[in-house]
Amino acid sequence: xxxxxxxxxxVLTPRQLRNRRLRNxxxxxxxxxxxxxxxxxxxxxxxxxILRPEP
Amino acid sequence: MSIASHNxxxxxxxIGDYAAGPAEYFALLKPRVMSLVIWTALAGLLVAPTHVHxxxxxxxxxxxxxxxxxxxxxxxxxxxxxxxxxxxTRSRPVPAGLVEPREALFFGLTLALIAxxxxxVAANLLAAALLAFTIFFYVVVYTMWLKRSTPQNIVIGxxxxxxxxxxxxxxxxxxxxxxxxxLFAIIFMWTPPHFWALALVKSGDYARAGVPMMPNVKGAxxxxxxxxxxxxxxxxLGILPWRMGVGGELYAAMAIVAGAGMAWMAxxxxxxxxGALANKAAxxxxxFSILYLFLLFSALIxxxxxxxxxRFGL
Lengths: 55, 314
Hints:
The structure holds two protein chains of two kinds. Chain A is mainly α. Chain A has a domain at 14-47. In chain A, 60% of the residues lie in helices and 0% in strands. Chain A is built from one helix and no strands. The longest helix of chain A is centred in the middle third of the chain and has 33 residues, at 14-46. Chain A is rod-shaped, with a radius of gyration of 20 Å. Chain B is mostly helical. Chain B has two domains: 21-176, Tetracycline Repressor, domain 2 (Orthogonal Bundle); 180-305, Four Helix Bundle (Hemerythrin (Met), subunit A) (Up-down Bundle). The A-B interface holds A 13, 15-16, 18-19, 22-23, 25-26, 34, 37-38, 40-41, 43-45 and B 17, 19-22, 25, 53, 55-56, 59, 62, 114, 118, 121-122.
């Protein structure tokens, strides 16, 4: 489907389209950063042994 | 009308088409306030007698910063109606029509939740509870209640801005002690001279918006006296961390020299009462007060960072 002409007939301005793309990018980066942060916190709190399989 | 629809009529879409990009959402976080919060929280974390793993320290400071930003976004959501009336604030994202009020509300709530949960996971429950209380105090007690009802708004509300070093200290120790409370007291006493210096110059703005700031309610001369009084209490408080061993010689020098500067400027505001010179003196005090707080907490950060380097044998 053409991104500029959705089914409900609303046409976004070029500025709105650009800012929507930038917002999506910012949300993606923030979620990635949060995942990396929680990964690092887990390793620090539980120690690197958490990554080793049980013998 | 539900609370979520508060201020929905403030920014018609026609003005800014609600076409906000990341920069406008970032502006909702009040980045300048956030930078001061990061700095004071870092000082609180570093002066603590316990060592914190660098990853935990970075995650915690990030969570505190995001929590402060969330409080800023919620403040901008609630205050959009009065922000639209003041020259200083009318270009903020909500009154400018770039962000819908409801979006600002849910953006703030989401960030607040993420920040508090992250701090609970990274540090401890006390630090997370203190951060949650800070956000609650700033948004509900200061923004929703005190700001529009009493000239003591920024005095009592200043407690929210003074809490970040206490949160930082709690991240490291899991406790609240006299050491962190003295840092709280410094920022608490610093807030009235800082904001009232600005309010003296922007009293027309505040009058238009109906915000009962001290110069509008009690008059400019009473405000000048209060600025001087709070500054004279602030200066010895600023030196106290050195006497208690929280700060060293560098801190003592900063507290004494910058404190003398604050006293000199507050005295000028008290004495020069008419014309452009009076406004200039007030704005100089406003600007210098930011430098004062920055210098004091920077001295603590520098002194305690060197302590950390020694601990790592560097």
